[in-house]
């Protein structure tokens, strides 16, 4: 079923994948903290602004949380496989889960990042840059980097598809 | 090099791919017309609003044009292959071009759609819906549908990777 003839190359790509997921996890965690703690009080008018006042930032948070949960699950599965020496999925389902998981999560992450950037650019145009817009941009940038790592992981898992049995 | 033992299944998936690309092309064309022709004049104040006043809509147009050009190229290549009976790319490069092309273009399309939706929702919140925001939403929706077709095509081209020679 599974190609065990080249354990070294398979171990290398599994390590690269795990490394990419840990990196994504770290970047998403910082992005989440930055955007969730983002508050701003205008000293002159006393107006308070929070991330939850903007639908786009709420959507961004949802995509970060979804990506975060997915990467946590993948890391837990990797550790389980290393510790127990068993595969969690039988046959092809592991490859398909990785392939579709990475693909769908990477689409979520880039859509959240694009929505966040779009709204920050548009809402704070002509306004002098302040800590609120800076943090929102920083969070969207970290989310974009997390997306890039997931997109690379997604390319890896697509190239792993030939190892499926049904070819 | 290329698996020619099952021409029927390969012809079917090539037809499905071409069909998905024609659909994407049509949806992107309508999305482009809708957003590029989007103007609004406020009857009371006389203020004029155009799509180019918003950075997010300009980004959206760029992603539509990129997706449009890519699908045009792919359709031209398909017609060339059918007419001449030759492959345009030798060996593996055709599969890799399709795989990375679909993957990257689908990321562009969803980011454009997300930026467009995010800004429309945020800018026209609390404002009664008008023809400008309606058309912007319609364009972003069509772009999202175009993305879905490209994402399906991208899954197809990923599953075609095992036909590469180097496995």
Oligomer: homodimer
Largest sheet of chain A: 2 strands, antiparallel
Please write the string of helix (H) and strand (E) elements of chain A: HEEHHH
> Any idea how many domains of chain A?
1
Computed over alpha carbons, the radius of gyration of chain A is 19 Å
Strand numbers in spatial order across the main sheet of chain A: 1-2
Helix count of chain A?
Answer: 4
Task: Name the biggest interface.
Answer: A-B, 31 and 31 residues
Helicity of chain A, as a percent range: over 70%
Structural class of chain A: mainly alpha
* Total beta strand runs of chain A: 2
Unreliable stretches covering 5 or more consecutive residues of chain A: 1-6
Question: Distance between the terminal alpha carbons of chain A, to the nearest Å?
Answer: 11 Å
Beta fraction of the residues of chain A? under 5%
Query: Judging from the principal axes of the Cα atoms, what is the shape of chain A?
Result: elongated
Mean pLDDT across all amino acids of chain A: 86
Organism (chains A, B): Flemingia macrophylla
Subcellular location (chains A, B): Cell membrane
Domain Casparian strip membrane protein (chains A, B): 13-149
Subunit structure (chains A, B): Homodimer and heterodimers.
